[in-house]
Inverse folding.
């Protein structure tokens, strides 16, 4: 489900998105859809070819081409209200404004901060079963575009994003295993909320990968100790 | 090493793979450090590595590049540079590599080490020693692992199976039998050897291996073993083992090693070979008067007999004569009769019914010392004082015989011994204890100091170097040091032995049974060696007490015991009455 669109970026991996407000989309995103620590994806239209058919197919959602998504995580939310501060008397209250001047654009908005964690190439959106062509953790090469739409991810997709086999040569390049290759670059960012996001991510992964509990517990304990014990101790 | 570069195909640069890159100078002058991943786990402590150094003195000939010298060094310390964080090790069933892979590091290698190397130098085949380049390698130089062939050639002074070689085992850091450690028999025998280890570390095993080597056809040595515990009896298998014989070349030059084992009751000391010092040790706590009388009596009996053997009766006779002579001289007339009586009684009691001391018999030097013969003197069951006297008299006679023969004073007879000998002294701390002087100390010191000139080599074996006289220990130029746990003993070894590096001695408690640090004159550089298996059976093993106790209760033994302990039927009444 689409929850918003990119309106600004702070860096190559930090994007600010505006959540769709009332009447902007058919199904208005609920607060749970853009909760703290949720995984989201943004399609990267890398090969913007000049073929008008392909563009049309894409627009209609019947394209057979695989789509590359940037995968990110929501790590901050800001409620924007430009009207705050202008507390002077108004001639009409909010309900009246809505009723009498429907063309008045509300300037209130919910902004979310998304950090890009990696990329994923998925099969055509129309096909029933999602086929994963490739997964990559780390900084994507291409930047996202302003106005790109942000989608929530299903558990299945989150699982696919974390559990894959290395494409490059490695010790076990055939057998898939749990990856959290984005952890180092999350830690490298200076943001007080990011460690908390990491814990949230681990919580989600613990639910998705019950067989890897002990592996995750190592990272989790390490983070929990540093965040909770060392900072308060 | 320069020649080797051209001759050995294994040393061609294409086949070698560097194991690391030099980082820089180490903590001390003759040390450097290099960094290695060491995936193959070959850079053990004590392993040998080298770098190449072009020699400024030797310029390239005919347009070839100047030959390279291989500067050998020994790995002393291994410091990890990059390890998994502790928190990755928190879950015993999850390997840290798995955690690392999860966070995106999935490389095969993860460890990185800094290795500290003591520079030994490049081998100079002319002088047979290592020459220090006096400069650490440049940063960035490639480090190679010394190959087996190179080490076999330069660690030992002799090559395996050469005449005058004793292969005692192989280099510990390499697979068994790839790099033989070969002692130079000439240096062992002329400048003495010490084997030092805690009990159970394999002292007598190593000594037996060395003796086996000395008895082989390429050495044909002349050995005497002083064996206070009777551990070396099994060496008599040498006489039958095929390794110790050699077919003649058609001229009747065949060889077969001989072993003679003297049981304690066969070890005899002729009374006339004892001197005053021996007497003082054998008859302790003599009064001044007794000592005076005895020394005069000894002088007299020597004068009277002039080199021919004398016995207890002669000595008693001499004591009487001397005392009479003395009382004639002193008109004062102090009565010596009680002293004479006491002394005579003591001499009688000590020597008359002694197994060891005999009027006429003693060990014939020509019989116990023969090339190609190993003689074992078993001294178990003999009192420690007597053992010291036996060793002292034997060494004294041996020393006199060798001196006289070397100086050309004798050409035949009892004290003619025209070949060098090697004496192995087990439990050497009994014969030269530190702190006190016993009867064998001075002659042992003399032999160690002068033996080189006269061809008497001594192999000392001791489990308590701390109790051994420090002078005696430091005279031994070849040292075989095995596991030593006792700290006092470790210190005394370190103090007495300069030839072994401190870093090697730190390994002493870590050595296992049958592993030995060999240093000194008989090898080119100190090495840690794995002792080879013996050809003959080992005799010095500890008793398996539980096994013997078990045997006590097996059925046959119980039966026979019941039979032997059963009271005779007609003795029943007698037993009851008791």
């Amino acid at each position: 489900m689409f929850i918003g669109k990119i309106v600004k970026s702070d860096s190559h991996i930090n994007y600010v998105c505006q959540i769709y407000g009332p009447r902007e989309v058919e199904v208005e995103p609920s607060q749970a859809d853009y909760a703290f620590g949720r995984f989201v994806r943004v399609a990267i239209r890398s090969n913007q070819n000049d073929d008008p058919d392909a563009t049309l197919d894409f627009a209609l959602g019947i394209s057979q081409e695989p789509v590359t998504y940037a995968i990110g995580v929501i790590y901050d939310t800001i409620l924007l209200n430009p009207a705050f501060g202008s507390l002077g008397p108004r001639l009409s209250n909010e309900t009246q404004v809505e009723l009498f001047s429907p063309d008045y654009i509300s300037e209130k908005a919910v902004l979310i901060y998304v950090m890009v964690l990696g990329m994923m190439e998925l099969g055509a959106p129309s096909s029933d079963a999602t086929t994963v062509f490739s997964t990559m953790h780390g900084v994507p090469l291409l930047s996202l575009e302003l106005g790109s739409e942000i989608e929530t991810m299903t558990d299945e997709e989150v699982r696919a994003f974390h559990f894959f086999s290395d494409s490059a040569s490695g010790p076990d390049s055939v057998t898939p295993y749990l990856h959290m290759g984005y952890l180092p670059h999350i830690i490298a960012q200076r943001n007080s909320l990011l460690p908390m996001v990491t814990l949230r991510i681990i919580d989600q992964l613990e639910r998705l990968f019950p067989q890897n509990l002990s592996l995750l517990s190592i990272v989790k304990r390490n983070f929990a100790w540093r965040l909770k014990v060392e900072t308060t101790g | 090493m320069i020649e080797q570069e051209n001759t050995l195909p294994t040393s061609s640069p294409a086949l070698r793979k560097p194991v690391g890159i030099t980082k820089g100078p180490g903590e001390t002058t003759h040390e450097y450090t290099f960094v290695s991943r060491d995936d193959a786990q070959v850079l053990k402590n004590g392993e040998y590595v080298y770098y190449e150094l072009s020699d400024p003195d030797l310029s390239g000939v005919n347009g070839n590049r100047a030959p390279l010298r291989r500067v050998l060094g020994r790995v002393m310390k291994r410091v990890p540079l990059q390890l998994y964080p502790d928190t990755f090790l928190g879950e015993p069933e999850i390997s840290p590599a798995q955690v690392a892979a999860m966070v995106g590091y999935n490389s095969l290698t993860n460890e990185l080490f800094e290795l500290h190397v003591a520079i030994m130098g490049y081998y100079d085949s002319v002088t047979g020693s290592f020459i220090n380049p006096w400069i650490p390698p440049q940063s960035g130089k490639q480090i190679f692992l010394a190959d087996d062939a190179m080490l076999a050639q330069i660690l030992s002074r002799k090559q395996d199976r050469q005449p005058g070689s004793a292969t005692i085992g192989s280099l510990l850091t390499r697979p068994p039998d790839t790099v033989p450690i070969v002692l130079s028999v000439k240096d062992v025998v002329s400048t003495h050897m010490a084997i030092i280890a805690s009990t159970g570390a394999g002292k007598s095993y190593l000594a037996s291996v060395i003796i086996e080597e000395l008895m082989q056809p390429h050495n044909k040595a002349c050995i005497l073993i002083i064996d206070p515990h009777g551990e070396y009896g099994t060496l008599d298998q040498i006489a039958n083992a095929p390794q110790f014989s050699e077919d003649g070349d058609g001229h009747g030059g065949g060889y077969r090693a001989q072993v003679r084992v003297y049981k304690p009751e066969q070890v005899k000391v002729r009374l006339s070979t004892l001197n005053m010092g021996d007497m003082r040790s054998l008859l302790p706590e003599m009064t001044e008067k007794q000592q005076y009388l005895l020394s005069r009596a000894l002088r007299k009996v020597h004068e009277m007999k002039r080199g021919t053997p004398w016995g207890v009766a002669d000595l008693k006779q001499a004591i009487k004569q001397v005392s009479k002579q003395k009382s004639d001289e002193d008109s004062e007339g102090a009565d010596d009769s009680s002293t004479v009586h006491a002394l005579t009684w003591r001499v009688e009691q000590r020597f008359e019914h002694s197994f060891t001391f005999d009027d006429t018999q003693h060990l014939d030097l020509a019989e116990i010392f023969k090339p190609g013969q190993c003689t074992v003197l078993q001294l178990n069951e003999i009192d420690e004082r007597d053992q010291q006297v036996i060793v002292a008299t034997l060494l004294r006679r041996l020393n006199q015989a060798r001196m006289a023969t070397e100086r050309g004073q004798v050409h035949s007879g009892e004290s003619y011994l025209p070949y060098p000998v090697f004496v192995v002294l087990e439990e050497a701390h009994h014969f030269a204890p530190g702190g006190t002087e016993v009867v064998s100390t001075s002659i042992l010191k003399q032999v160690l100091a002068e033996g080189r000139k006269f061809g008497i080599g001594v192999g000392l074996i001791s489990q308590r170097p701390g109790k051994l006289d420090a002078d005696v220990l430091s005279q031994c130029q070849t040292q075989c040091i095995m596991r030593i746990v006792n700290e006092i003993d470790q210190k005394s070894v370190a103090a007495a032995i300069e030839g072994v590096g401190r870093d090697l001695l730190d390994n002493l408690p870590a050595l296992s049974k049958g592993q030995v640090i060999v240093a000194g004159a008989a090898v080119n550089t100190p090495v840690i060696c794995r002792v080879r298996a013996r050809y003959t059976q080992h005799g010095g093993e500890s008793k398996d007490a539980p096994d013997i106790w078990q045997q006590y209760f097996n059925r046959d033994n119980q039966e026979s015991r019941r039979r032997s302990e059963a009271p005779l039927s007609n003795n029943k009444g007698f037993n009851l009455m008791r």
In short: Chain B has 19 helices and 22 strands.
